[in-house]
Design brief:
By secondary structure, this protein is α+β, with helices and mostly antiparallel strands. The protein is 21% helix and 39% strand. The strands form 4 sheets. The chain has a 13-stranded antiparallel beta sheet. A hairpin with a 4-residue loop joins strand 5 and strand 6. The protein is globular, with a radius of gyration of 28 Å.
């Protein structure tokens, strides 16, 4: 049971959400056995209904399925970094291709439908909280058809914070207590799970796909500002313009490694001709993975993994003058096929795993007070460490609370700077130095600080 308490510290702050356990019914004491049976009525009723729910929805997913769903659907990224969109007013578009010009006009129409340029520019950061339900379906495609095996279903919730397209963090928790955290501070994108330590993603940081699919219209407009118009298509009875963004070869090579090569990564956006809003977002991602084996065979044998994501977006509502999608459904398909069938032959056999996510937004807001750059710091393991000598010097300065001020230094005989006597240093007024303490995940609140008193020269 959730309980919302008002924020007494700040009138413009968000309310505090408390998780309160459901209390059991209290009955009058009875000496009979029937009274003792009534005291456990609520617990037995809840347990029996949960058992019926599991029997109706199927067995819960395995640990491997939960890890796969969180790894694929939890925090996917867009193909490449995005740059800030430039308005078309006052620009010469005669030399640009027709497909690019059409795409820019469609993006301008989307910006107007999402709330207008002034409203999108006024949003400096955003926050969203929602619920998800995920399930898996496994099967194998062949010439004769496709056999499927239904997997389990799991429910959970997530929270997203974003300051800029390259500064974001997301945390998702599903039933059973399994948690996934991911984020980007603008320099490195990282991910952390219970079964894998915090690790950085290859290549430059990229925006979060979950924010692009209707939560942050400004990020969506920045992503498709470099798109090309590829045609029109009818989606659920609504005629839409189709825009396509392909990752640059430099971005693909930066994300590739010795054993894994990113062959292509493209995203398609479907914008309604009637409303101008984004109603569907498709994503295609192809990897070439070297097969483990002999050294001679490894150079020739490769396996291809293709990830296809299709997101339906809807239930737009105005929040601070910005139209934000509050519901949607994402379908993911993972396919593995051999190297000789990489051309996409439909008759080749494929091992396919399908996943589906249904999400809904419960709360979203813009311009959150206190959301600074420190809230997006990566875990401590990914923060580069300073050299030992430099760290030792910083620690000494922090312990003594004395800064290297030129006013407190003098010149020696050879012209070198030397420290003045302790009496000159003691004349400085006592002050406190705030030393930030590394907290790992920084978005759970303001950074912790440690007060260090300045040591006067007379006390030494």
């Amino acid at each position: 049971m959730r309980k919302v308490c008002p924020n007494l510290d700040r009138e413009d702050g968000l309310d505090t959400v408390l998780e309160v356990p459901v209390p059991e019914l209290h009955h009058e004491p009875s000496s009979s056995g029937r009274g003792r049976r009534r005291r456990r009525t609520v617990k037995a009723w809840v347990r029996s209904h949960m058992d019926q729910r599991h029997r109706r929805d199927g067995a819960p997913p395995s640990r491997a399925d939960v890890q796969l769903m969180l790894g694929v659907i939890g925090a996917p990224l867009v193909p490449q970094p995005v740059a800030a969109r430039k308005a078309m007013a006052g620009q010469d578009i005669k030399e640009e291709p027709l497909e690019v010009v059409k795409a820019r006009y469609i993006v301008e129409q989307y910006v107007a439908a999402a709330g207008g340029e002034p409203a999108l520019s006024a949003a400096k950061n955003m926050y969203a909280m929602g619920k998800v339900r995920m399930r898996t379906t496994k099967g194998q495609k062949a010439r004769t058809g496709m056999g499927t095996l239904n997997g389990g279903e799991v429910a959970g919730g997530f929270v997203v914070w974003q300051k800029r397209p390259e500064q974001w963090c997301v945390e998702m928790v599903v039933a059973g207590g399994t948690k996934m955290s991911a984020g980007s501070d603008g320099k490195v994108a990282w991910r952390q799970t219970p079964w894998q330590q915090a690790h950085a993603s290859r290549g430059p940081p990229r925006p979060l796909r979950r924010c692009v699919q209707g939560l942050d219209p400004k990020s969506t407009a920045d992503l498709f500002s470099s798109a090309a118009w590829v045609g029109e298509k009818c989606i659920d009875g609504d005629d839409c313009f189709v825009l396509r963004v392909d990752a640059d070869p430099s971005a693909l090579s930066a994300r590739s490694g010795a054993d894994v090569e990113v062959v292509r990564h493209a995203v398609l956006g479907y914008f309604s001709q009637r409303t101008g809003l984004l109603v569907r977002l498709d994503d295609s991602h192809l990897l070439r993975i070297r097969v483990e084996g002999d050294a001679a065979a490894a150079a020739d044998e490769c396996a291809y993994w293709e990830t296809t994501m299709e997101s339906s977006i809807g239930d737009y509502r105005a929040v601070d003058g910005i139209n934000v999608a509050h519901a949607g459904r994402t379908t993911v398909s993972l396919s593995r096929f051999a190297g000789e069938d990489a051309d996409g032959d439909a008759s080749s056999k494929r091992t396919c795993t399908s996943m589906e996510e249904t999400w809904s937004i419960e709360e979203v807001d813009f311009n959150i007070v206190g959301l600074s750059n420190e809230c997006f710091l990566p875990p401590r393991d990914l923060i580069p460490c300073k050299p030992k000598q430099e760290q030792r010097d910083d620690d000494c300065v922090a312990d003594r609370g004395i800064k290297k001020d030129p006013a407190l230094e003098g010149k020696g005989k050879n012209g070198d700077r030397v420290a003045r006597p302790a009496a000159a240093a003691a004349a400085a007024a006592a002050r406190k130095v705030l030393v930030p303490a590394a907290t790992g995940l920084g978005w759970f609140g303001p950074a912790k600080v440690v007060a260090v008193e300045t040591v006067d020269g007379d006390d030494q």
